[in-house]
Automatic annotation (TrEMBL):
SUPFAM superfamilies: ARM repeat, P-loop containing nucleoside triphosphate hydrolases. Residues 1-72 are annotated as: Disordered. Residues 445-483, 524-600 form a coiled coil. GO terms for biological process: microtubule-based movement; mitotic spindle assembly; spindle elongation. It comes from Gossypium raimondii (Peruvian cotton). Interacts (via C-terminus) with NEK5. This is Kinesin-like protein.
Length: 907
C-alpha cells in the first residue's frame, strides 16, 4: 500500500495517465456496471425501440443529446482480465510474487516494475483471476450485444499475450460445464432470445486472418476473401464470406465447432497454431421495426393493403464482431520460437498496424493508417467508427512475461482513449420490399395466369358444351328428318302399291268386261231366238186361256146359282137353329117363372087360408094360364115367336127378373132379354123399359160368366142403334165392358164384349169419349185371347173407328194423328193386315186404308211398316174395291210417294 502511495507520486506517466483518465473517471465509474443497468432495463428496452438507444448507449458519456445522424459518442471500453496461475506457473513462479496487483473495487491495476516501484493503471473494468465467465460476459460483452440488438454495430475484442486466456474468455463452448461458456456462446444466447425468428434474422460468418489472408472457416476452400468498404458509410463487408443463418443455439454451437475444426485443419496444413492467426466471428442481426410501421399505418387509417405493402419495412442491421487476436508477443520472441520472419512480420503487421491506428485515434491524429493491414481495415468501424467496442485485455500473473503484460496494458490504456460515434444502422428495406413486390408480382402473375387458364378452360368447356348441344340438336334433327323421310317413303310406297293393285284390278275387270261383252252378244242372240219361240208359244197359250176362260165363266154361272141356292138353304137352317135355341131359352125361363108363380100362389093361398086381408092378384093366374099353354106351345110349336111371349108376359116383368136373387132366374131372364134384343123391333121397347140399363148393371154386379156373355151379347145387339150407343156410353158402358173383358175367360164372352165395343166404334160422335174411356185399349187388350172370332170383332171395331176418323178428317173436324195410332194399335194392325182369317184380314185392310187416307198418319205408318201392307193391299187384295181404295190412298199421299221414291220403288 505504501508503494501505492509512491505510485501516485510517480512520474509523468501516471500523471499523464491520470490526466487523461480523470476526465472520464467519474463517467466511467458511473458507467462502471452498465451491464447490470442494461440487464435491469432489458424489459424496458423491449417497450420502445427508441428507448433502446438511451438505455444501451452510455448516455452518461454523450449526455444523450446527439441525434441519430450525428451518432452518439461512445468511447472504447476496456476491461483487463487476469488469468489465474497455471499449474506450471505455480511451480515455476513459486518463488516470485505476481507482477500485477488488481484493485477491482477501484478498477485499478498495479504493475510491479521492480521490487520497489509499481505503476497504477485504471480500466473500465478490472477482472480478477476469480471473475466468473458470466460476469466477464456481462461486464465486457453484454452492453455491446444489446446495442447490436438495437441496431448498432458492436465489437468485442480480446488482446493479449498467447496463453493469457483470450480464447478462454471469448470462445469457450462450455459443453461440460455451462458456467464455462464464453462470450460468443452467451452473446448468441442473448441474441436468439431477443429476436423474433419470423421477422428478424441472425446470420453468422466465421473467418481467420493469417498472414494477411482472410480465410472462410465455414468454407475452407474459400481462403482469400476480399474486404469491401463502402467509402461513403465506411461500412466494411465481406461479400465472399459464407453467411449462415442461425435459428437456434444448437446449430450455432455446431457451426462454431465446424469452424474450429476447419481452423485446426488449416493451421495443421499451414504448420501454424491458432495463436498466430486472428479469428473473427461476425454476427449479423437484422430486425424489422414493427412499432414504427404500426404507428405509421395508424396515422393513415384508410391506407389500403397495397399501399401498406408498397411501404418498405424499416430494418435495423446490427453487426457484432468478435475478434480473438493472435498473441501479442514481441516479434523477437516469436522469432526465437522458430517462426518464420515473414510470419512474424505478418502477425505483427496486423497487430502493430492496429496499435498504430489506436495510437493515432487516441491522440486524435489527423491520419489513422487504417489501410495498412487487413485487420485494421476489418476493424475500421470498431475503432474510430460507429460501433460500440469493448476490449478485453488478458494478462498472465507471471513476472516472467512482465514485458508483454506491460505492453498489453499500454495497448489497453491507449484503446481507452479511442472515441467512437455510435450510429444506428437503420434503413428502409428497399431490397426486401422489392423482393416482396417481386413475390407479390409473381403471385399476381401466377394468379392471373391461373385465372386466364380457368377462363380459357371455361370458354373451352362452354364451347365444347355448346358444340355438343349443337351436334346433339343436329343429330336429333337428322334423326327426325330420317324418320319423316322413311315415313313418307313408306306412305309413298304404299300408295304406289295400292295404285298398282287398283290398276291391276281395273285391268282385270276390263278383261272380264270384254269377255262378258262377247258372251252377252252371244246370249242376246240366243235369247232373241228363245223370245220369238216364247212369243209364238204365248200366243197359242193365250188362245187356250181364252177358251178356258169362257168355259170357266159358264161353269161359274152355274156354280153361282148353285151357291146361292145352298146359301139360302144354309141361312134357313141357321135361322131354324137360332130359333130353336131361343125357344129353348124361353122354355126354361118360363119354367122358372112358372115355378116362381106357383110359389107365389101357394103363398097367397096360405094367406087366404089364414083369413088374411091380402088380395090375390087377379092377373097372376091368368098370366100363368097364359104362359102355361105358351110354354107347352113352345115345346110343341117351334114357330111361336118371342114377340108373342113378351106380349103375353110383359117386358117389365121380364126385366125385373134380371134382378132376381136366384141365379138361375137371372140367367134365364137375361137370356130372354138377349133373345128379345136380337130382334130389332124389340130393341126400342127394351131400351125404353130400362132394359139396357139393367143389362149394364147386371154386367157390373154379376160374377157369373154366362150372365156376362149373354148380357154382353144383348148389349152388343142393342148397340147397333145410334141412340142406344149414346146411352151405353152415358151409362159408363165402356168401363163395364172393359172390366168384363178383363175378367172373361170364355172367348164367346170376349167376342160379345168386342162386338159391343166394335159397334160403338162405328159412331162418329162417340170417337173421343170412347177412346177417352179406354175403349180402344180394351179392344186391343182382348187380342191376347187369340180366338179368331174375338180377333174378327176387334178388327171390325178398329176398322169402324178408322172409318169414322177418316170421315172426320175428310170433313176437317179431326186434325191430329189417329187415336188408334196414339193408343198403340198400329203394330197389331200391321201384324194382322194379312191374317189368314179373311174376316180379320178384310177389316184390317179397310182400317189400313182409312188410316192411310189421312196424311198426318203417314209418317207413323211408314215407320210402323204399314206402308208395305198398303202396297200389298193395293196389289194383292182379292176385293177390288179395297184394292182400288188402297191404290188411290197410296198415290194421293205425297209422304208415301216420297218414301217410295226414296226407296227407289217404282210404284
Ligand atoms: P490464449 O487464447 O490467450 O492463447 P488460452 O485461452 O488458450 O490463451 O489460455 C491458455 C490456458 O490458460 C488454457 O489452458 C486456459 O484454460 C487457461 N486459462 C486461461 N484463462 C483462464 C482463466 N481465467 N481461468 C482458468 N484458466 C484459464
Ligand atoms: Mg487463443
Amino acid at each position: 500500500m505504501a508503494s501505492g502511495g509512491a505510485n501516485y507520486r510517480n512520474g509523468t506517466q501516471r500523471n499523464s495517465l491520470k490526466g487523461t483518465t480523470t476526465a472520464t473517471d467519474r463517467q466511467l465509474s458511473m458507467n462502471s456496471n452498465p451491464s447490470k443497468a442494461a440487464l435491469k432495463n432489458k424489459s424496458l428496452s423491449l417497450v420502445g425501440a427508441s428507448s433502446g438507444l438511451r438505455k444501451s448507449s452510455p448516455g452518461s458519456l454523450g449526455g444523450g443529446t446527439a441525434k441519430d445522424d450525428a451518432g452518439v459518442p461512445g468511447r472504447v471500453r476496456v476491461a483487463v482480465r487476469l488469468r489465474p496461475r497455471s499449474a506450471e506457473e505455480s511451480v515455476a513462479d513459486a518463488d516470485f510474487a505476481d507482477c500485477v496487483e488488481l484493485q477491482p473495487e477501484f478498477k485499478r491495476l498495479k504493475l510491479r516494475k521492480n521490487n520497489w516501484d509499481t505503476d497504477t493503471y485504471e480500466f473500465d473494468e478490472v477482472l480478477t483471476e476469480f471473475a466468473s465467465q458470466k460476469r466477464v460476459y456481462e461486464v465486457v460483452a453484454k452492453p455491446v450485444v444489446e446495442s447490436v440488438l438495437d441496431g448498432y454495430n458492436g465489437t468485442v475484442m480480446a488482446y493479449g499475450q498467447t496463453g493469457t486466456g483470450k480464447t478462454y474468455t471469448l470462445g469457450r463452448l462450455g459443453e461440460e460445464d455451462t458456467a464455462d461458456r464464453g462470450i460468443i456462446v452467451r452473446a448468441m444466447e442473448d441474441i436468439l432470445a431477443d429476436v423474433s425468428l419470423e421477422s428478424d434474422s441472425v446470420s453468422v460468418s466465421y473467418l481467420q486472418l493469417y498472414m494477411e489472408s482472410l480465410q472462410d472457416l465455414l468454407d475452407p476452400t474459400n481462403d482469400n476473401i476480399s474486404i469491401v468498404e463502402d467509402p461513403k458509410s465506411g461500412d466494411v463487408s465481406l461479400p465472399g464470406a459464407t453467411l449462415v443463418e442461425i435459428r437456434d443455439q444448437q446449430s450455432f454451437l455446431e457451426l462454431l465447432q465446424l469452424g474450429e475444426a476447419h481452423r485446426y485443419a488449416a493451421n495443421t496444413r499451414l504448420n501454424t497454431e491458432s495463436s498466430r492467426s486472428h479469428a473473427l466471428l461476425m454476427v449479423h442481426v437484422k430486425r424489422s421495426v414493427k412499432g414504427r410501421e404500426l404507428a405509421h399505418s395508424s396515422q393513415n387509417g384508410n391506407s389500403t393493403n397495397i399501399a401498406k405493402s408498397l411501404r418498405p419495412t424499416l430494418v435495423r442491421k446490427g453487426k457484432l464482431v468478435v475478434v480473438d487476436l493472435a498473441g501479442s508477443e514481441r516479434i523477437d520472441k516469436s522469432g526465437s520460437e522458430g517462426h518464420t520472419l515473414e510470419e512474424a512480420k505478418s502477425i505483427n503487421l496486423s497487430l502493430s498496424a492496429l496499435g498504430k491506428c489506436i495510437n493515432a485515434l487516441a491522440e486524435n491524429s489527423a491520419h489513422v493508417p487504417v489501410r495498412d493491414s487487413k485487420l485494421t481495415r476489418l476493424l475500421r468501424d470498431s475503432f474510430g467508427g460507429t460501433a460500440r467496442t469493448s476490449l478485453v485485455i488478458t494478462i498472465g500473473p507471471s513476472p516472467r512475461h512482465r514485458g508483454e503484460t506491460t505492453s498489453t496494458i499500454m495497448f489497453g490504456q491507449r484503446a481507452m482513449k479511442v472515441e467512437n460515434m455510435l450510429k444506428l444502422k437503420e434503413e428502409f428495406d428497399y431490397k426486401s420490399l422489392a423482393r416482396k413486390l417481386d413475390i407479390q408480382l409473381d403471385k399476381l402473375i401466377m394468379e392471373h395466369e391461373r385465372k386466364q387458364k380457368a377462363f380459357e378452360e371455361e370458354i373451352e368447356r362452354i364451347t365444347t358444351d355448346t358444340q355438343n348441344q349443337i351436334s346433339e340438336a343436329e343429330r336429333n334433327y337428322a334423326d327426325a328428318m330420317e324418320k319423316e323421310r322413311l315415313k313418307y317413303q313408306k306412305d309413298y310406297m304404299e300408295s304406289i302399291k295400292k295404285l298398282e293393285e287398283k290398276w291391276m284390278m281395273n285391268q282385270h275387270k276390263l278383261g272380264e268386261r270384254k269377255d262378258q261383252t262377247a258372251s252377252t252378244a252371244q246370249e242376246v242372240a240366243e235369247l232373241k231366238k228363245l223370245l220369238s219361240k216364247e212369243t209364238s208359244l204365248r200366243k197359242a197359250a193365250e188362245e187356250e186361256v181364252n177358251n178356258l176362260k169362257s168355259q170357266l165363266a159358264q161353269l161359274k154361272m152355274s156354280e153361282a146359282s148353285a151357291n146361292s141356292e145352298s146359301l139360302k138353304l144354309r141361312k134357313m137352317l141357321e135361322d131354324e137353329a137360332y130359333r130353336k135355341e131361343k125357344l129353348e131359352g124361353e122354355i126354361s125361363m118360363l119354367q122358372t117363372q112358372l115355378l116362381q108363380l106357383s110359389f107365389e100362389a101357394d103363398e097367397t093361398r096360405r094367406r087366404l087360408d089364414r083369413g088374411g086381408p091380402g088380395k090375390v092378384p087377379g092377373d097372376l093366374d091368368s098370366l100363368i094360364s097364359q104362359v102355361r099353354p105358351q110354354v107347352n106351345d113352345s115345346v110343341n110349336e117351334e114357330k111361336a115367336s118371342i114377340a108373342n111371349l113378351f106380349e103375353q108376359v110383359g117386358l117389365q116383368k121380364i126385366l125385373s127378373l134380371l134382378e132376381a136373387e136366384d141365379a138361375d132366374v137371372r140367367i134365364h131372364a137375361v137370356k130372354v132379354v138377349a133373345n128379345l134384343a136380337a130382334e130389332e123391333s124389340n130393341q126400342q121397347k127394351i131400351v125404353e123399359a130400362g132394359g139396357l140399363t139393367s143389362l149394364l148393371l147386371l154386367l157390373g154386379s154379376s160374377e157369373d160368366e154366362m150372365i156376362h156373355r149373354v148380357a154382353a151379347g144383348a148389349i152388343a145387339n142393342l148397340a147397333m142403334n145410334e141412340t142406344n150407343q149414346e146411352l151405353i156410353m152415358s151409362e159408363g158402358g165402356i168401363r163395364l165392358l172393359s172390366i168384363t173383358a178383363a175378367n172373361a175367360e170364355d172367348p164367346q164372352t170376349l167376342r160379345m164384349v168386342a162386338g159391343a165395343i166394335a159397334n160403338l166404334c162405328g159412331n162418329d160422335k162417340l170417337q173421343n169419349k170412347l177412346r177417352g174411356e179406354g175403349g180402344i185399349k180394351a179392344l186391343l187388350g182382348m187380342v191376347k185371347c187369340g180366338h179368331p172370332d174375338v180377333l174378327a170383332q176387334v178388327a171390325r171395331g178398329i176398322a169402324n173407328f178408322a172409318k169414322c176418323e177418316s170421315r172426320a178428317s175428310a170433313q176437317g173436324s179431326k186434325t191430329g194423328r189417329s187415336l188408334l195410332i196414339e193408343d198403340g194399335a198400329l203394330p197389331w194392325i200391321v201384324q194382322n193386315a194379312n191374317n189368314d182369317a179373311s174376316p180379320i184380314r178384310r177389316h184390317i185392310e179397310l182400317a189400313v186404308c182409312h188410316l192411310a187416307q189421312h196424311e198426318v198418319n203417314a209418317r207413323d205408318m211408314i215407320t210402323g211398316g204399314a206402308l208395305w201392307e198398303l202396297v200389298r193391299i193395293s196389289q194383292d187384295c182379292s176385293r177390288e174395291d179395297i184394292r182400288t181404295l188402297a191404290h188411290r190412298t197410296l198415290t194421293s199421299s205425297p209422304t208415301f210417294l216420297a218414301e217410295l221414291r226414296r226407296l227407289r220403288i217404282d210404284y
